[in-house]
Amino acid sequence: VSARVAGPVLGLDIGGTKLAAGVVSADGKVVSWERAPSVAAEGPERVIARLVDLGRLSVRRAGLRMEDIGGVGVACGGPLDPETGVIINALNNPGWVNVPLKSMLEAALGRPAYVENDANAAALGEHRYGAGRGTDNLVYITVSTGIGGGLILDGELFRGENGNAGEIGHLQVAYQGRACHCGGQGCVEAYASGTNIAQRAREALVSEEPSVLLELAGTPDRITAEAVADAARRGDPVAARIWDETIEVLAAGVASTVNAFNPRLVVIGGGVTGAGDLLFEPLRRRAIARAMPPLAAVVRIVPAELGERTGVIGAAAVALTRVSAPA
Ligand SMILES: [Zn+2]
Fold first, then answer.
1. How far is the CA of 156 from the centre of ligand 1 (A)?
2. DSSP states of 162-190 as a string?
3. Which tens digit of pLDDT belongs to each residue from 110-124?
4. Where are the beta strands (DSSP E) in 146-252?
5. Threshold 0.90, pTM exceeds
6. Which residues are near ligand 1, the ion (C-beta closer than 5 Å)?
7. Which of 28, 40, 86, 217 is the most buried if burial means most Cβ atoms within 10 Å?
8. For residue 3, pLDDT beyond 50
């Protein structure tokens, strides 16, 4: 017996640099949306207090009272435990070690809270309300400061044994490759995250010919993934090589994921997808070429649709899914 809740719910998004909150109706409409900077260095208590204020503000701006909210969904970087709602050790939020996020939010807001890994929440959001509507098997990948992923298999979010499945950024596609901050080696993220695209460009400039990259960025420490994409588009040889390698690593990760899970859709979001066709066109071609033919034949690689509201809509999808789950 499921206790269906019609909504609305409150979605909260804890990013490395910003916080967002919004009231979302059961059909995925964003009723209110607020955003504020987050300073990870302030530590979890201060960040959570700010998030609570932002949540209260969104409920007020939606013309509602907190009692009208069916539940609170929270998207946060992992590793975390979605059952207990404890953040175990957030890779991108230093100092977040064993933070009881669920109980802190429930105490502050007086509503049931549901915590999910941010990429898993985004996968759920794209599945219910974005590029993946109507698809049963979907892989979501976000290529941003880091690389996250989430899996929808047979219509449901696949969490794994302790809630951290789908870490596609940490597929080790180069077994003797670059060290990754996760402790692994040759991870997709160690090459193709925004941070590492810029880092690889800096390393290339030390030993290679002059590049327009330095003119674009000014100094090596100001090189960004976006600057690498711009320079590659202009035909700069150093940037083009870095970009091609990025595509090949992402294609290896996507093809491995396709071979493992046989999805209908691979939905790719995150800041680096701002490069548009410079990313998607060669990535589709190389990923399809690398995947096994019967699996490649049924998969499509598409951009995510929810944009900057992904975190809030994904968090809301978590609340709507878990509030209405059978007891
Ligand atoms: Zn890794």
1. 25
2. TS----GGG-BSSTT--B-TTS-BSBTHH
3. 999 999 999 999 999
4. 147-153, 156-157
5. yes
6. 170, 180, 182, 184, 187
7. 217
8. no
